[in-house]
Amino acid sequence: MVRRGGPATGRLFACPEPTIPDPRQLFRFGTVMKQQAYRDGRKRCILPLRNLPLNELLGGGDMKKLAYLGAFAIAATAATNASAALLATCSVNDIAPTAQACVGFQSGNLLSNNQSDVDAQTAALKQLGFDWSGTTVAKVTGLNSATTVNFGTALKGVTYIAVHYGNGTGGPGNGTAFYRLDAGSNLSSITLGYKSASSNAVLYATNVGAAVPEPATWAMMVLGFGLAGYAMRRGARREMAAVRAS
């Protein structure tokens, strides 16, 4: 590979073997660059770091090269994630009862068992404050634009669900949204705000974080059981004493 440079003659010369990048050249004009230099220190050549062979980057176990390669990979990943825009913005009013929070709509049907979809579900539920174990309570398929979803089980308290819509009219487009809601007590179904295009839905968990009695409450319960037992035992003794006296 050749680059124009060197002394004032402007003639072409070959880039030398890759050396450790000069940190001052790393992000010139938004491009990760690597500075090369002849041994005499007079002629220079700028070579894009991304064009270097992998064995050149990793050769010799140079930690600096590994660090530069890692930085480049992180930058590329960030650029990829930034380009993945949401299909549409969900709303807590998409469902009834009104959700507490939502994530989505993310493009496509993410409610499958494919690893990429499982990863997407895990990440979305994490944003809602739920660490998903990978299991579900119920799945409903073939909604066929229905405006209500019945998971076949009573919903209670904090509940996590997801709904996928197809490309039908009246929906947000082919996308999936995730919701956290308070289902109250024995809720039988969820009402969808979009009047058509519903496709399938998943119930991840319900009655999450159900109230656990406080220590003081437990103490009162134990004391209550103890007093009740004592009263029953004392009553039994009185009856026995009365029988003997007669």
How would you describe the shape?
elongated
Order the strands across the largest sheet as they lie in space.
7-11-10-13-8
Order of helices and strands: EEEEEHHEEHEEEEEEH
Average pLDDT works out at 74
User: Class by helix and strand content?
Assistant: alpha+beta
Low-confidence stretches: 1-13, 25-50, 78-84
Work out the strand percent. Answer: 25-35%
Characterize the biggest β-sheet.
5 strands, antiparallel
Total of DSSP H or I helical runs spanning 4+ residues: 4
How far is the N terminus from the C terminus?
118 Å
- Domain unit count: 3
**Beta strand count:** 13
In short:
The chain has 246 residues and is of the alpha+beta class. The chain contains four helices and 13 strands. The model is unreliable at 1-13, 25-50 and 78-84 (pLDDT under 50).
Helix and strand topology:
Blueprint: E1 2-4, E2 12-14, E3 27-28, E4 31-37, E5 44-48, H1 54-58, H2 63-83, E6 95-96, E7 99-107, H3 115-127, E8 138-140, E9 148-149, E10 158-165, E11 175-182, E12 190-192, E13 198-208, H4 215-245
Antiparallel strand pairs: 1-2, 3-4, 4-5, 6-12, 7-11, 8-13, 9-12, 10-11, 10-13
Describe the structure.
- The chain is α+β, with helices and mostly antiparallel strands.
- It folds into three domains: 2-83, no CATH class; 92-208, no CATH class; 214-246.
- It has four helices and 13 strands.
- It has helices at 54-58, 63-83, 115-127, 215-245, and strands at residues 2-4, 12-14, 27-28, 31-37, 44-48, 95-96, 99-107, 138-140, 148-149, 158-165, 175-182, 190-192, 198-208.
- The strands form four sheets. A five-stranded antiparallel beta sheet has the order 7-11-10-13-8, with helices on one face. The protein has a three-stranded antiparallel beta sheet with strand order 3-4-5, with no helix packed on it. Strands 6-12-9 form a three-stranded antiparallel beta sheet, with no helix packed on it.
- Residues 1-13, 25-50 and 78-84 have low confidence and may be disordered.
